[in-house]
Design brief:
By secondary structure, this protein is of the alpha+beta class. The chain is built from 13 helices and seven strands. Helix 2 packs antiparallel against helix 3, helix 6 crosses helix 7 and helix 10 packs antiparallel against helix 12. It is found in: Cell membrane.
Amino acid sequence: MLDHPETQFSLTHRRLRLDTLVRLRWLAVGGQTAALLVVHIGLGYPLPIGLAFSLVAFSAWLNVFLKIYSPASLRISERAATLQLAYDILQMSGLLFLTGGLGNPFAFLLMAPVMVSATALSAHNTLILGILATLCASVLAVFHLPLPWPGGSGFNLPAVYSIGVWIALVSTLGFMAVYAFRVAEEARQLADALAATELVLAKEQHLNALDGLATAAAHELGTPLATIFLAAKELSDEFEPEDPRTEDIALIRSQSERCRDILRKLTSLSSDEDATYQAMKVSQLIEDVIDPHRGFGIQIAVSASGQGPEPVGSRNAAIRYGLGNLLENAIDFAETTVEVSALWDTKTVSISIRDDGPGFALEVLAKIGDPYVSVRSGKTARKDAGGGLGLGFFIAKTLLERTGAKLFLENRAPPEHGAHIRVTWPRAAIESLGHMDGQDFSLHKD
């Protein structure tokens, strides 16, 4: 159930807008220009100002060219973005070569393009840019013009200090790149998971909307169809039985009557008479969820009991999808049996799913609910199963919580083994027909 969204969606979250890179480069151009003017004119330090400003001007002209020939909303490919960020590293390295190499306090700006890549591009391209920045830093540690200093006197850093600066720059580059990439990747995964959830809900809403649309169409088509049927009936009385046109009139009447029968069925789809079909007891809900999962070699035991009359709810798509996903995962990891039980009292309704599989690993229990947590324990799911608790569990949890449910997960107590998932609702939420998605979650008591 959507455990692998990369095969379901064409995601573009790693396609940077060209305008973003242009704006960042303008910021760099402004900062480099200000630094050169302050050092050369303000402080009077000697440096090859012509060559330095040529590098800055080249970046400015590159931005002007991109702005003119490309729309601001253009999203460029990863390769194009990587090439532009590689240029920024080389341009910054050129300025550092002219102004003292790693002895220049601005040497750590070599990390900036790599950080941009870590937050927006793939790990492969980020690694390429990180290697390029490391090579540039290594060259600058050995080959560079003297650091600008007053009076024309040279300022040479001790070799040990230069090595220390190189180590600090490279290690900071690696740490920051990995950290930024992991944070951005988690945000992207969460966005993908939420998009998948919205897709599931939109599909269900679309199916519900088709019901109303069919009813409206039936009402609109009813009047002209009745007119056609009446006209055909009157025409049939005007022709003799042996007239060849009689068969055509009879065909029109029969097809009109068929269309009227179809429209009557469409009209009944959203009528109040269908309320009996939409209402279902908790035991019926469990059977509705279990039925598609029978016949896979795993025994499914069902029980339902409680205090008072059995709760009656609605045929809610979010509940059926969420419970179905939890049951599917239990079947994937079970050895022989999955137990599904329902308990209720005057205030709450609870549905529990137990399996006799390996159970949850402790590190997974702490992360369940996050997208792409896909391993239960040291064992994997059956070969014919679809996988572990990944994005599908995240979607199921989200959909169930939207109906007012709370999920509790634990491992079964020894000597039993396996996982135990319990889903509870306020009884008032279950018994509110047709309004499951809009329940006030505050009804749920801790």
